[in-house]
């Protein structure tokens, strides 16, 4: 049976001539034009990035390698006795675009198990950090400290051909991805469980081992698998993916690049929104001495937040114009496993009330919930009540997508990213007002 790396190389060889032809024969064909509003407005909607890993349709939501979330979950081999697929099989799928067989998946599981041991100095570095450091800062630092292990940097320094760069990028990415669950779980148990790390179980798959190292019983293993897959990729323009690819485009290795992506994910308008959602919801419950608010009280709280100039966390999106299918997938899980959970009931009520309030408010282009609107509720239900930790879970999932992207970036020889900037004077000249 060919290894994932061999299958990937075959795919790379198939794709390279497509890139060469597009560049050579059609390089001058216009994909898009850029307006002043787009240049000032965060490059919204400008088609200028390339990725085959996932695509985000504003009306439909994300497709991983052409498959919707439901199709992805249905197609991939599942962990025996579990309702969700192996993360390792999903990695195979994102990298190659092919749905792996159970045997191919188990081969990746075994490969990841062998890559899993985290160098001891990473844990020592984490232990030396102040315990009240935000866990995202800890994660980013741990990843960058592990840069010492980078094969990409070593082989680049030894001198290697551009066409081979994908190979050590693949090795670094697999090593990093295989080790991230242990690092994330270590941070959790260091910060919140009195420094009581649980060693990895070498027999378990990535999701199962993560639940084990967190010390949380099933079905949390399925929560981990679902959560990591859902958060993996959302095409390339979002801050964490774009940052990772941007840094990697300077031929920085996977450790530097992903650490930078983690820093981007830590912003409250991006991944940190999942901690903000629970902070916001619980703020309301505290005001009501733990009582679930009525719909009217919730609407009033939404207005209070909006009128004080703050955003409603977990709602709105830069690209999506409907309820995020990643929100719906988590809702499905909640309906099955925690339909009576108090926070979940509140999230459901918010889903009923918030879109109308946001529409009436009239600013947000998309009044519907995004992925962050209820992910914290599931984590809280299984005992992770430290909501500042939720974005770390997002980051472990996001690694799958961004690392797949940077392997392909090197495989297809994508160059250093270097968009052009203009001055306000220049824009006024173009607008004819100066
Ligand atoms: N609550 C209040 N106002 C909102 C809003 C929300 N949830 N979503 C958008 N708006 C406002 C924007 O702040 C903007 O206001 P200004 O014109 O005063 O600047 C206006 O509506 C238009 O924004 P938009 O075009 O609809 O959305 P953007 O592309 O600018 O921003 C996002 C997208 C996600 C940053 C924004 O919807 C937001 O801040 N949401 C809340 C935070 C959040 O949930 N982030 C997580 C997103 C998913 C993820 O990456 O994890």
Structural account:
The protein is an all-alpha fold. The chain has two domains: 1-27 and 41-269 and 390-434, Citrate Synthase, domain 1; 273-381, Cytochrome p450-Terp, domain 2. Helices cover 59% and strands 2% of the residues. It contains 20 helices and two strands. The protein has a two-stranded antiparallel ribbon. Strand 1 and strand 2 form a beta hairpin. Helix 6 (120-127) packs antiparallel against helix 7 (135-145), helix 6 packs across helix 9 (166-192) and helix 8 runs antiparallel to helix 9 (166-192). The longest helix is centred in the middle third of the chain and has 27 residues, at 166-192. The chain is globular and about 65 Å long. Residues 238, 269-271, 273, 306, 311-318, 363-366, 370-372 line the site of carboxymethyldethia coenzyme *A.
